[in-house]
């Protein structure tokens, strides 16, 4: 059959589906509408090729399973982003920076022959970066009284003692039932209750993008700041020796493309997932009951898979092609999120050896209100600075427009310039790169967590032949995502394959 006729037929299939009011009308998935080349059969289809999706694909492949990663962007890596400075060739990581020194991390990098080092261990001893605290809303410097190292480590010891009460939290959002009051206390109150004040600014700096850390439920802080991360504060985190964290994803891309296991610039438009009361799983599809229509640069494909693994943020607005059941929609619609944004700027007027942290003069722990800058630090290329910006938690998927974020970053820098002419040059800062990571840090409200939200969400694992991983399920932390994926998710995906 000529390919233009095929594509007309497959288009008609979709039109039929839409005109029937059902985005996943079975006729759109009729195999006879697709050429053999456009019909792809795999053990597991994986949606999203960031940290969770790429790790899952490689692990499943290593277990001899066939996979297909469907990634909407033209590259793998998700929140791992590396800008290569064209003049010097120096890589600048503006997304994921560090990992825990644990076997799930070291084994993964070893598999790709990518050397890791302790972060900061190869810093140039001749360059000293000084640090200043500034209120980006006024431009004024802020005098932050830092606790002593002994006070910080005592506070983290006290915090670790609290974490030890909940050992299952090391493996995921496995909360005791009933959920203890402490876990849903606003973190600021938890800090006071257990005298953790000296740890707060460190936690704020290591866990940005979370929203207001003092008003959010304690368990959302513990989710990233678990025992594993706390222990890395003393032993040191790992980073790539080449200071190009995207190296992992460049190598994974080559491997997955060479085995026809990856569709870049591609998205699922419609899907059929079986359910006990669904009429959509026809007997012919019992071995590969997951059916996906995927829009790719080389036309529409039909994907038939035994199982589906979704790794993208689980907001219902982003999951419409997956025909959520009312129960799934009900659960995911309870999630709220913040926004997190990074960028590289030139001509900032900031000295190239000065790193600026956001601070407020009269708030608890000098933590500034959101939305606003977290800080601006020198990039490894002289003359460039990396800015980090966050927005508060909100039920809205996107809490600020990119134009607004860009304008606020520039305004913050200019306020600091204007208020401190002896330190900063008055310039017109320019964006070299800007990247939105919104929606970021999906999480439940305290009330929903107390009512068993996470147990209810985790009970979806494996339902409708669908498994889930990524930050929405574990934490905004790759090491923990990989541990959760390897220990909790993949055993279920592999069962019966
Ligand atoms: C600036 C920044 C710095 C960070 N630093 C660290 C750090 O140092 N260490 C650390 O461990 N963690 C860090 N994180 C947290 C980081 O989010 C996690 O480590 C991890 O990347 C999350 O993995 P994920 O798979 O859930 O999401 P992602 O890595 O974002 O992957 C999701 C992927 O799905 C794709 N996608 C989205 N929608 C669709 C769709 N409809 N169809 C197909 N594909 C889709 C996206 O393009 C993306 O590639 C940082 C995050 C940010 C934003």
Q: Could you characterize what this model shows?
A:
There is one protein chain. The chain is α/β, with parallel strands linked by helices. The chain has two domains: 3-74 and 250-333 and 462-494, FAD/NAD(P)-binding domain; 120-235 and 336-443, Alpha-Beta Complex (Polyamine Oxidase, Chain A, domain 2). 31% of the residues lie in helices and 21% in strands. It is built from 15 helices and 18 strands. It has helices at 3-19, 51-62, 103-111, 149-163, 181-184, 187-193, 200-206, 218-224, 227-235, 247-258, 326-332, 402-419, 446-450, 453-458, 478-494; strands at 39-47, 67-70, 82-84, 91-93, 116-118, 130-134, 238-240, 262-263, 267-272, 290-296, 299-310, 336-346, 354-358, 372-378, 384-394, 430-436, 440-443, 466-468. The strands form four sheets. Strands 1, 2, 8, 9, 10, 11 and 18 form a seven-stranded mixed β-sheet that branches. Strands 6, 12, 13, 14, 15, 16 and 17 form a seven-stranded mixed β-sheet that branches. Helix 2 (51-62) packs across helix 15. The longest helix is centred in the last third of the chain and has 18 residues, at 402-419. The chain is globular, with a radius of gyration of 24 Å. Flavin-adenine dinucleotide binds next to helix 2, strand 12 and helix 15.
């Amino acid at each position: 059959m000529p390919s233009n006729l095929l594509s007309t037929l497959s288009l008609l299939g979709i039109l039929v589906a839409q005109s029937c009011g059902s985005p996943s009308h079975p006729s759109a998935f009729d195999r006879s509408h697709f050429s053999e080349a456009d019909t792809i059969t795999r053990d597991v289809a994986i949606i999203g090729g960031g940290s969770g999706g790429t790790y899952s694909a490689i692990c499943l492949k290593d277990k001899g399973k066939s996979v297909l990663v469907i990634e909407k962007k033209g590259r793998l890596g998700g929140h791992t982003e590396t800008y290569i400075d064209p003049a010097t060739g120096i890589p600048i990581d503006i997304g994921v920076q560090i990992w825990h020194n644990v076997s799930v991390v070291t084994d993964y990098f070893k598999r790709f022959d990518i050397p890791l080092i302790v972060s900061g261990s190869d810093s140039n001893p001749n360059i000293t970066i000084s640090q200043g605290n500034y209120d980006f809303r006024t431009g004024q410097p802020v005098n932050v009284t830092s606790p002593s190292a002994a006070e910080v480590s005592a506070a983290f010891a006290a915090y670790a003692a609290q974490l030890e009460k909940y050992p299952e939290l090391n493996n995921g959002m496995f909360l005791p039932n009933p959920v203890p009051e402490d876990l849903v206390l606003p973190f600021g109150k938890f800090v006071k209750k257990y005298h953790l004040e000296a740890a707060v600014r460190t936690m704020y700096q290591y866990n940005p993008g979370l929203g207001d850390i003092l008003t959010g439920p304690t368990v959302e802080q513990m989710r990233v700041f678990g025992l594993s991360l706390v222990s890395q504060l003393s032993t040191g985190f790992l980073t790539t020796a080449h200071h190009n964290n995207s190296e992992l994803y460049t190598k994974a891309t080559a491997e997955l493309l060479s085995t026809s296991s990856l569709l870049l610039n591609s998205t699922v438009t419609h899907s059929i997932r079986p359910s006990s009361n669904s009429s959509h799983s026809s007997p012919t599809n019992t071995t590969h009951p997951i059916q996906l229509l995927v829009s790719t640069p080389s036309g529409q494909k039909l994907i038939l898979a035994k199982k589906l693994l979704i790794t993208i943020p689980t907001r219902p607005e982003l999951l419409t092609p997956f025909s959520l059941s009312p129960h799934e929609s009900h659960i995911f619609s309870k999630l709220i999120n913040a926004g997190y944004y990074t960028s590289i700027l030139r001509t900032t007027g900031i000295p190239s050896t000065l790193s600026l942290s956001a601070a407020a003069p009269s708030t608890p722990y000098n933590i500034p209100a959101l939305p606003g800058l977290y800080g601006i630090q020198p990039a490894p290329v002289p003359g460039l600075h990396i800015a980090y910006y966050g927005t508060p938690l909100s039920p809205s998927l996107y809490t600020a427009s990119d134009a607004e974020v860009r304008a606020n970053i520039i305004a913050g820098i200019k306020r600091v310039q204007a208020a401190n002419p002896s330190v900063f040059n008055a310039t017109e800062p320019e964006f070299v790169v800007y990247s939105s990571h919104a929606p970021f840090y999906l999480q439940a409200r305290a009330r929903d967590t107390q009512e068993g939200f996470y147990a209810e969400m985790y009970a979806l694992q494996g339902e409708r032949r669908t498994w889930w991983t990524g930050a929405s399920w574990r934490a905004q932390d790759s090491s923990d995502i990989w541990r959760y994926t390897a220990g909790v998710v993949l055993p279920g995906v592999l069962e019966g394959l």
